[in-house]
Amino acid sequence: MSSAAEKNSGAGPVRAAHVFDVASLERYFGAHVPEIKGSLDVQQFKGGQSNPTYLLQAGGKKYVLRRKPPGNLLPSAHAVDREYRIMHALRNTDVPVPRMFCLCEDASVIGTPFYVMECVEGRVLWDPDLPGMTSEQRRAHYRELNRAIAALHSVDPAKVGLADFGKPGNYVERQIARWIKQYRAAETERIDAMENLIEWLPKNIPLDVSNSLTHGDYRFDNVIFHPTEPRILAIIDWELSTIGDPIADFVYHCMKYRMPGGGIANMSDADKAKLGVPTEMEYRNLYCEFTGRSDIPNFDFYMAFGMFRLVGILQGVAKRFLDGNASSANAAETAKRTRPMAEAGWEQALRVINGVR
To answer: What 3-state DSSP class applies to 62?
Structure first.
């Protein structure tokens, strides 16, 4: 098992900051979710940087509960209601999602709003290098990861009741403004590269080309694969989902190809071919094949934008860690990635500025 998997996989005792009244939850289920029967055993998953996530066991069955964290929260963050709504809406599409049981927005039940979904048994792949697989297996898993996001971007929001799930148009402009605000609200130190991105990004936004449903944080460790097959059973962690720019959504999950800190970002194309990992260009072309596109324009801008967004997310983790209400046991280590990610994002912007191909 990789170090990332060891740190993030599995469930254990509920951390002190995230304890809630289990008896109150049992009473709520009795009144509103009769399918969940019996006394509850509650554990907390190790992973999940934003919303505390719990494993519930009752009546010989397993469920997953996601809730807003306690304490003072950033505006518009931790949107468990949006997570619930989009997964419920996608239940009859080609996009793999867990079954939803309930959404409770009454904070008096366990202290913050929450939802409950089925516990999907499978594999979460924390390392995009996919260690331990054959080259054929790696290629199949990458293809499936690509297929699933292409399926999401192909869903008509209106046909699944999500026409009002986000504002049409100007997605990147609005996202930049939102994440500058989120970053400033959580800022703990000055990072020059982030200041550069905050100055440069709003002045270089490509024209909107299309809108679709977007996940917002799509990557290997936010999908659950079948226990033995290269098939995704569920996409999870939809907190940042909206109607937005599908290219921004796709490029965001391609950051593994340029992520600081090693992994496939440091592999040569020959290494990738040998290991069965598609090159960045092969992966881009596969998405075009799935979606009927001819190309992916402004790739480097969107890469800079994606890393900028991730800096905003990481800075929020850093602030919650300092405030003592971080959701993940590994928040301190995650927070350390903030500055290197900002510097990597500015490197992407410099590629655009300098005309690097």
So the answer is: strand
Q: To the nearest 10°, report the CA torsion of 72, 321, 98, 12.
A: -120
Mean pLDDT, rounded, of the chain: 91
Spell out the domain ranges in the chain: 3-118, 135-353
Task: State the pTM of this model.
Answer: 0.88
Residues with Cβ < 8 Å from 97, sequence gap 6 or more? 87, 90, 91, 234, 235
pLDDT per residue as tens digits for the range 102-133: 999 999 999 999 999 999 999 999 999 999 99
In angstroms, what CA-CA distances link 273 with 134, 231, 244, 247, 254? 12, 22, 33, 25, 17
Query: What gap in Å lies between CA 217 and CA 201, rounded to an integer?
Result: 20
Alpha helices in 124-236 (DSSP H): 135-153, 171-186, 192-200
Dihedral sign computed on CA atoms, order 22, 62, 85, 50: positive
Contacts of 131 (CB under 8 A, 6+ apart): 2
Which tokens go with 323? 């405030």
Domain 3-118 is classified in which CATH homologous superfamily?
Phosphorylase Kinase; domain 1 (3.30.200.20)
Q: Cα(109)–Cα(56) distance, rounded to whole angstroms?
A: 16
Q: What is the CATH number of domain 135-353?
A: 3.90.1200.10
Sign of CA dihedral 170, 171, 172, 176: positive
Closest CA to 317 of 131, 132, 47, 102: 47
